[in-house]
Amino acid sequence: MMWSNFFLQEENRRRGAAGRRRAHGQRRSGLTPEREGKVKLALLLAAVGATLAVLSVGTEFWVELNTYKANGSSVCEAAHLGLWKVCTKRLWQADVPADRDTCGPAELPGEANCTYFKFFTTEENARIFQRTTKKEVNLAAAVIAVLGLAVMALGCLCIIMVLSKGAEFLLRVGAICFGLSGLLLLVSLEVFRHSVRALLQRVSPEPPPAPRLTYEYSWSLGCGVGAGLILLLGAGCFLLLTLPSRPWGSLCPKRGHRAT
């Protein structure tokens, strides 16, 4: 009988300690399961935008430059570039669709030559099809994109702290970070568009003559646009979560509490 009481008291003590630890964890987190689920859904949306942003900034298919098909030649030239490097390609005209007047698309197999822009190291403009880049505009687009990624990483850290430590005041900070990163990415895209226009206008007078070019924006830039919009949407979701629930409850009263 004495041993049974001892084991019963020991079991009650362990259960009480476990209950106190759970209660302490709930007080520390400060998030209800419903609210925590909403934060995780908004974080998942922001994670999709972050993935697209990293994919966009890290690839070089922002714009394709296509020369016109040369009569009597079996090859033609195209190029695709992004924030960091440019790739020129020699394509077989037999692989180019017959309904195209220009060479491309750049995804076709061919001889590729990819180089990083020299203005990041030696501050020299790059030459693409007898045209020179405007390094100030290209550098501005790259710096703005990197700042957007840095702010986005800070926003992810804030939301992780909310979920792990219950620091709900960081929700607003995370929302601002994600909104700012989305805006920075969209601004970087616009600056890059200006750099492409400047490239097409800066024709070198030196021989050989510059070929006629057409350009089309590619999937990397589309990923950047999608990333900026999704990050802005995620920022809006986090801002909604920071609003008090009482005003929403007064606007949408429950059926069981109708006014008589």
From TrEMBL:
It is found in: Cell membrane; Membrane. It comes from Pongo abelii. This is Voltage-dependent calcium channel gamma-6 subunit. The chain crosses the membrane at residues 41-63, 137-163, 169-192, 219-241. Interacts with CACNA1C. Identified in a complex with the L-type calcium channel subunits CACNA1C, CACNA2D1 and either CACNB1 or CACNB2. Gene3D superfamilies: 1.20.140.150. Regulates the activity of L-type calcium channels that contain CACNA1C as pore-forming subunit. Belongs to the PMP-22/EMP/MP20 family. CACNG subfamily. It comes from the Eukaryota. GO terms for molecular function: calcium channel activity; calcium channel regulator activity. Residues 14-33 are annotated as: Disordered. Pfam families: Claudin_2. It is a multi-pass membrane protein. Keywords: Calcium, Calcium channel, Calcium transport, Cell membrane, Ion channel, Ion transport, Membrane, Transmembrane, Transmembrane helix, Transport, Voltage-gated channel. Residues 15-27 have a biased composition (Basic residues). Coiled coil: none annotated. InterPro entries: PMP22/EMP/MP20/Claudin, VDCC_g6su, VDCC_gsu.
